[in-house]
TrEMBL record, chains A, B:
Organism field: Kribbella voronezhensis
Official protein name in the record: Hydrogenase maturation carbamoyl dehydratase HypE
Family: Belongs to the HypE family.
Gene3D superfamilies given in the database record: PurM-like C-terminal domain, PurM-like, N-terminal domain
Domain PurM-like C-terminal positions: 190-335
Pfam families, per database record: AIRS, AIRS_C
């Protein structure tokens, strides 16, 4: 479904207000929720910055990381949540059940935590076949076993037909943060190297191919996978990893922009080094998409000091989920907060954060 | 909306199957999801027992308690989740934002934990006014502050118009379980006393009154409240509390049936001791409802050894959220797994678990 863009109305007399709550700028330009508010781009960031953070006023949420790191009973824990509204529910390489596990497992791993327990909340739409729910639950259970996490607690709600889309799932997860690691976007520093763990853009194109009924020659299969094993191997080699991020909604471009802004560094990518499968490249050129903005569900970005990059890369390539790992760029002191890419012709172009949503309901 | 009951078709040739997943009995009688699967009664229990527990095969989930108790990094933690799909979003005494905090805070408290951190996942429907989202977020933030918990991590997804209902919220929570407490339904024992912390049936009737546009004389205001403070006071007095349960969906009747079955005891209620506000009694008799089955969002059931009941009751009555606490029954060795009530006329009637949903989307 195309995004419904509402242009600001210069004649609008008052900001939308509800019982004492006034819509802050710049959200005021879009007084209703549009798909772009869920796209992981600028509109999502505005919603978080101007609506949720002031409402929940606390320092943890303002960090905008994939998971919060908290201390409870002396334990150093990562805590994270994600809702999953992907359509279709089943796609090449997985289902909403796999995504619900791996999405949260990966968010925890990106804090340097070993994921341990998941919660799982289903919102079912009246009329969906129980066999569909059963198959998704089975996928979820299998994915949890594969990732080595336990589904410890759950909840099921049912909504009337026409108020859901078969199955929505929320998972939250807790994990134990490894002693001595300090992984945060703020730690990216000029001179650091940017590494991607493998081929980009695969999940998004897998979803689009089934949703739009388009074949791109070879079937594109989602990369949906749990990254906690890869991260554990990386931390064994390189405990001083600076940043980890899984580039899901909004893709590599959005994740790197968030890191550049948080750390106040520039990031310079080398276009020819980006590992992009031919099928993804073809599909993107057909659909008018940029692979840098397409969602991944089994890839991570790592930012590390230059003198540790070779050893880290070797470790990653020795792991099945990091076999195609590559250095794709570096952090630079110039243009802080901005991501640029050097093209094959030596030109430089800005890789901005997308405003709304390129591919709706991709996870 | 009325529940759509699908009668079993004796001519149905095969159980519904999806790619190797076969619908187990007794779910087979309802091959699609109906509202009753989310009602917290027998159909919900069947879904958990026959579909989710086998899929997630692990001992924690099979306990069917409000929250799981796990050990991580040496810390003894409670972990719980709930999704909220209540309609309307705003009602007398609160909103979906208040419910989202108090529902999960209370689930954690029912394990004897002090809730510490919440996650919060929003599923927004395209087209809902941002001022509505903002007001809900503000309510959620205020409720978190009141309960003394921190919203540590969050997520926002947007679904197309016609696939949501304005705002759905999932919260998960973690809390620290107090040393030395062992609160589980299995600990209810013959001779124990059953205590309710206050007036029952208020939340459900508050929702129904606005949803149906019915006035019952006085406005009925939801009892939505965080119970962790009350529980802390109770545990100071009575660390050996046997069972705690907040009777939400399905009401007091459903919670007590679950406890009776888990512990293998009978429970005998004394009808005249049930604290029921006059407005709730009137509304229930008008709507054909039994207050024992109506949802509460700020009440708890406590089961405790008889010789500790007086002291515990005094502590509860000294707390603002326990002022109307009352002994409503006892655990008995007869009829294990069954709840009965003694009527004012000396007769005894069985208080069974409801099959489906009396009041849909109450939380």
């Amino acid at each position: 479904m195309a995004e419904q863009v509402m242009l600001p109305d210069p004649a609008m007399p008052d900001p939308p207000s509800f019982d004492g709550w006034t819509c802050p700028l710049p959200l005021r330009d879009h007084p209703t929720v549009v798909m772009g508010h869920g796209g992981g781009g600028q509109m999502s960031a505005e919603l978080i910055e101007h609506l949720f953070v002031p409402a929940f006023s606390n320092p943890l949420l303002a960090g905008l990381t994939d998971s919060a790191v908290v201390t409870l009973g002396g334990a150093h824990l990562a805590f994270s949540t994600d809702s999953f509204v992907v359509q279709p529910l089943f796609f090449p390489g997985g289902s909403i059940g796999d995504l619900a596990v791996n999405g949260t497992v990966n968010d925890l791993a990106m804090s340097g935590a070993q994921p341990a327990y998941l919660s799982c909340g289903f919102i079912l739409e009246e009329g969906v076949e129980l066999s569909v729910v059963g198959r998704i639950a089975k996928d979820l259970g299998t994915a949890a076993e594969l990732a080595g996490v336990i589904v410890a607690t759950g909840d099921t709600k049912v909504v009337d037909t026409g108020h859901g889309d078969g199955v929505y799932i929320n998972t939250a997860g807790i994990g134990l943060v490894r002693d001595g690691v300090d992984i945060r976007p703020q730690r990216a520093a000029a001179g650091d190297v940017v590494i991607i763990s493998g081929m980009i853009g695969v999940h998004g194109i897998a979803i689009m191919s089934v949703r739009e009924g388009i074949s791109f020659g070879t079937e594109v299969v989602s990369d949906c996978a749990p990254l906690n094993g890869l991260v554990a191997a990386m931390l064994d080699t390189t405990p001083d990893l600076h940043v980890l991020r899984d580039p899901t909604r909004g893709g590599v471009a959005t994740s790197l922009n968030e890191i550049a802004k948080a750390a106040g560094v520039g990031i310079e990518l080398t276009e020819r080094n980006l590992p992009i499968p031919e099928t993804v490249a073809n599909a993107c050129s057909f659909l008018g998409l940029d692979p840098l903005y397409v969602a991944n569900e089994g890839k991570l970005l790592a930012i590390v000091a230059r003198d540790q990059a070779d050893e880290l890369l070797a470790t990653m390539r020795a792991h099945p989920l990091g076999a195609d790992a590559a250095v794709i760029g570096e952090c630079v002191p110039d243009h802080p907060g901005m991501v640029v890419t050097k093209t094959a012709f030596g030109a430089t172009r800005v890789v901005d954060t997308p405003i709304g949503e390129q591919l709706p309901r991709i996870c």
